């Protein structure tokens, strides 16, 4: 059963998976958010746990950073472990003035400079996007949570999945900003492309931890506090219709 990158056995992973980039965050999600979570894989330090959320089996597996890394884990989950839905829960940098740090961005599409949108179907530039069912469920969950709890705004719109964390090309961000792009991160487009190829469903719910325009950044403590809201939106969406 084990794949080159996941050591879990048959039935060890739930059909619903939360996927942060950071393995430490995956462990914290297992310890503080899921119920009765147990470790099911730790190949290369990319830990995965399975427990439950509101009585439903749910797993968390880290993706590592970047499109190549998340593409490996998402492919193996959908293709070999019977996973149906993956929600990326990650951090992002705001690239437009109307988005602030502490806000949540739910990706409705993911522009990318990665070859993932160009290589998979010859002669075509694909448009990586989340599952509409999960996106709608996330929007509904966000409305309920914003009404219930304090915190920043929740935005739904396109993000930029960059192959470069250190991209010294401000004109790229200006042009994407003018086209309504909300934030930058490094995995959503790869996850969406894999989900569409493998017949799975995917979503990305991002906590805005940095602002590329103002230079503002959350402290590590604040990152954990505000991350919980994205997590709840993503987990509720995974349970959705
Ligand atoms: O917080 P995570 O999920 O890792 O996401 C963001 O943080 C990493 C860069 O620091 C990239 O993986 C980017 O997408
Ligand atoms: O990819 C990322 C993630 C968080 N903040 C950024 O500026 N970029």
Question: What attributes characterize this protein structure?
Answer:
241 residues, Rossmann fold, five-stranded mixed β-barrel, binds 1-O-phosphono-alpha-D-ribofuranose, binds uracil, purine-nucleoside phosphorylase activity, Nucleoside_phosphorylase_sf, Uridine phosphorylase, EC 2.4.2.3, glycosyltransferase
Number of domains: 1
Distance between the termini: 29 Å
CATH architecture grouping? 3-Layer(aba) Sandwich
N-to-C SSE string, H for helix and E for strand: EHEEEHEEHHEHEHEH
Named CATH topology: Rossmann fold
What fraction of residues sit in β-strands?
25-35%
Number of helices: 7
Bound molecules: 1-O-phosphono-alpha-D-ribofuranose, uracil
- Would you tell me the structural class of the helices and strands? alpha/beta
The gyration radius over C-alpha positions equals 17 Å
Stretches with pLDDT under 50, minimum 5 residues: none
The CATH top-level class label: Alpha Beta
Folded structure, characterized:
Helices cover 35% and strands 27% of the residues. By secondary structure, it is of the alpha/beta class. The chain has one domain: Rossmann fold (3-Layer(aba) Sandwich), CATH 3.40.50. The chain has a 5-stranded mixed β-barrel with strand order 5-8-7-6-9, surrounded by 4 helices. The two termini are 29 Å apart. 1-O-phosphono-alpha-D-ribofuranose binds at residues 20-22, 65, 90-91, 165, 185-187. Residues 16-227 form the Nucleoside phosphorylase domain. It holds the Pfam family PNP_UDP_1.
